[in-house]
Amino acid sequence: MRNTFIRKTILGIAISSALGMSQYSFAQESGADDEKIEKISVTGSRILRQGMTTVAPVMVISSDELNVGGNLNVGDVLATLPQFAQGIESTDNAYNPANAGLSVPDLRGLGEIRTLVLINGRRPAQTVDSSGLLVTDVSNIPARLIERVEILTGGASSIYGSDAVAGVINVILKESYNDFTVDAQAGTSERGDAESQSLTLTYGKEIDGGNIMMSVDFFNQENLRVVDRKGARGQTSYIRNPDGDNPRNIILNNVGWSDYNITPDRPTFMIDKTYNYYQFQRQDDGQLGEGYLAILDSELHSYYKQSHDLNPNLYSSAGPTEPIQPYQRHSAYVTGNYELPADIYMTGSVSYSKVSATTQLDPEFIFSNKGWIDITDAPFTVPQQVIDTVKQADTGSNWIAIPYTFNDFGNRTTDTEREYFGASLSFEGELENGWVWDAYVASGQTTSQATSLNRINSERYDGGYTLIGECEPNCPEFNPFMPLSKEVVDYLRLDPFTDERVISQHTFSANITGDILDLPAGYLSFATGVEIRKEGMEVNLSETILLGLNRNKKSQNNDVDRTVKEAYVELVVPVLSDAPAVKQLDIETAYRKANYTYAGTTDSWKLGINWAVTDDLRLRAVKSKAVRAPQLTELLSPSSITFIRGDDPCDATEIDTISTDKQAIRKANCQALGLPADFNAATNVTTGVDVTVSGNAQLEVETAYTKTVGLVFTPSFVEDLSLTVDYFDIDLNGGIARFGAFDTAEMCVDSATINNGFCAQVTRAADGNITNINDTWVNANLLSRRGVDVGVYYPWKLGGYGNLQLSAYATRIINSTFVDSPLEGETVFEYAGASGTPEWKGSFVAKYSLNDLSVRWKTNYVHSVLYRRDVTAEDYEQHVLPTSVLHHLRVGYYLNDDFEVYFNVNNVMDKDWLGHPGTSSGGSTYPITGRSFSLGLSYTL
Question: According to the model, what pLDDT value does residue 193 have?
């Protein structure tokens, strides 16, 4: 009986690999002789079956195609596929140290937390993102060990449990190997940065009764700096049109700041509230020269940022920011399988991965609004040059605001380290009646540590330039116009501090599947099983965070867990076969009951039809209920305070940027809050406010109802041609969300009146400025996605001239709607065609092979989108973001049977979209790296 299990695994891989010869393989069509196929397991079903026909669309990507262009990060590759939105990518974490080195996919744009990622059909232990939510980091998976990736689109909670709302990504790792192979690759951009190197050693050996395989993998990614790509990220920005004409917002290139990233050799201050910023050049003797206006055009004084092209006096907006952050990954994987007595097959695996990343941001700073001093009563010695400049300005005021950057501290740096360890053991057997059973136990843990360096102790100064605390009454002088003394630096700069999160997951599952009854149309087949998971999260914070020493960012330790108990049943019912217009008609259904600590009991189900009209045409449809249970972070996060960037919606400038029909409501509500029509918010200077974040133990389960209806056409008159068309419809109710601090503030003043639940979350001071926003999770959002997926695959045999395989896949988004909350009168916001949700997205792959030569060409297409939802040419200059078309090339050649060399070109045409605020930050759609190359080899000893 051992061969049953071996063939089940190997044939499943073989079929998928054969289909996976193109980038987009259609797992529903095996094209193999049924008499030679043992029953296999297919993503989306627990029932073993002949062939890979299921009611839900499943796309298979072979390992052969993951590396076109030389990208060794699985998540970045998945982000280019039509079904995916931009998730957490390794190329777009510049201002998010907590996400450094993370790569998390997002199916259908419903959010990373609604995409279930499996490894070999099982849930791996997860890690946390910058919001504290549990996600699966696919960068932990060594690309060289991947056999294939199976992507199921549509709800699958009845089969896999919570989180499978948008679909499932099942990463299948190699199980059997009988060689020793060395894989190596090195790459760089054409500009000589963003270098990467990888090395993988894989060893496998057949033993009597089984197989053992082990692999070690190393990957290194070097950085890419914003400053090295002119027009990238903060160097390009929208500003309000100084002329007051349309468009109301225009693009500013080569951006500089008048009050940020202040250099030590050029101190700055503003007199009163005139926005007249004066600078001083430091002389060779360390003293200041005469003051001069930083912004020469008096009509532009109210702008704290301008173009360096117009004003060379401004400070850099780029700083040390890195759209591609440097990180390293070390991983090891050992697996073995062995046949035990009584025809029981045992498989065990141990995996380890460690990711280390470093993020740098601008040094600590004091904004102008915090640095007000009276030059006649300052806490430090005011240089005579400053006094003279204030007198010459003759404003009648002795008050100046001094922005300051702590360059002597060094850049704010975060060293992030994630370490994963997992082990599993499974047993599989076959009963006398042919039913197959399996039992599985697994345990995994991810430890994430973030060490912060060069942070300021905000308890030791008054927010301005007076030192307080332990040094009193003999504190050293803090003079923003002079270089900092060592005493001031040592007193204000915190020692490095480390915060840790530990995520654990322990799983037991047991399943049994087989045929129950021989019906006229085929066997009635079933699968049933149970699963128990215990998930835990432990948060161990540094004293700095516990006490809120760094800018009052305060939180608490936490140690929580939950238990999940689930049971399911699945049936395939053959209804009719070999009848007119019915080659085979099956009904598939499944039901799962789940109990979650805190969230209670819920259920999910699916009902589908699989109708083979002829050998050429198959129709399929499935409707399902999928669920996502609230996570521990959403339920039980302790109260914490953090600083969030954003703009006060009542600021006069902000009101001018929204559509005309909304301006009247917002103006009325802001005035009802006691704010003047010309309100100039402090967020213009501070760029944000303190936000209190906490969990909500009353959260309920999210519920999604999904439908897919499609066809698979494999015409016998065109050999091997495959065409799939699938319509999808996803409606999510009670979506768990934190509205976000500034969305909460906006909904407060964009509702019919200020008598709403959102205004109660916003605290304003006597002068009208926001001092705190309470931001927690609630069941409120309603989301929907509707569209059509189309796929084509055609292998073309060219006789003695080789083989050509062509594949294309495209997604058309019909609707992508979002409802904030019933409190908003259930206003439906349509995002189809807006940034992040293109109406068309597609990929095309051509693979040519001749003897030892292989050439692959891949093209990714993303249709043009609006910069923001509903914007017009009157709102923003260049309000439409351009279409993105990117080409990638891989050329490989076998020098002999054991030695392949290959060459990759990523972004062959060297495309970039720098110089536009919506396309200059990096990512898979609008990359800023430019053309890059990699060279690799694979050698089997």
Answer: 95
Q: How far is residue 381 from each of residues 374, 375, 480, measured CA to CA in Å?
A: 12, 9, 10
Give CA–CA dist 169/328, Å, rounded.
24
Q: What is the mean pLDDT of residues 337-359?
A: 92
| Listed residue (11, 73, 64, 18) closest to 42, CA to CA | 11
Is 727 buried (19+), middle (13-18) or exposed (0-12) by CB count in 10 A? middle
Amino acid at 231: G
Could you write out the DSSP letters of every residue in 655-710? HHHS-HHHHHHHHHHHHHTT--TT---THHHH-EEEEEEE--TT---EEEEEEEEE
Read off the pLDDT band of 90 (50, 70, 90).
Answer: low
3-class DSSP assignment, residue 745:
helix
φ, ψ for residue 380, nearest 5 deg: -145, 170
Determine the distance from the C-alpha atom of residue 716 to the mean position of all C-alpha atoms in its chain, rounded to a whole number: 42
Give me the residues paired with residue 528 across strands.
Answer: 512, 569
Q: What is the model's pTM?
A: 0.86
Single out the residue of 364, 373, 423, 431 nearest to residue 397, CA to CA.
373
Report the C-alpha gap between 405 and 403 in whole angstroms: 7
List pLDDT tens digits, range 146-177.
Answer: 888 999 988 899 999 999 999 999 998 887 78
Residue 13 scores a pLDDT above 80: no
Cα–Cα distance, 12 to 125 (Å, whole number): 25
Cα gap 530→593, rounded to integer Å: 10
Q: Is residue 3 pLDDT above 50, yes or no? A: no
Q: How far apart, in whole angstroms, are the C-alpha atoms of residue 107 and residue 389?
A: 58
Query: What pLDDT does residue 128 have?
Result: 81
Structure tokens at 213: 């395989």
Nearest to 740 by CA among 777, 698, 785: 777
pLDDT for 581 beyond 50:
yes
Nearest in space to 104 (alpha carbons), one of 134, 132, 62: 134
Q: Which two tokens stand for residue 599?
A: 């969230």
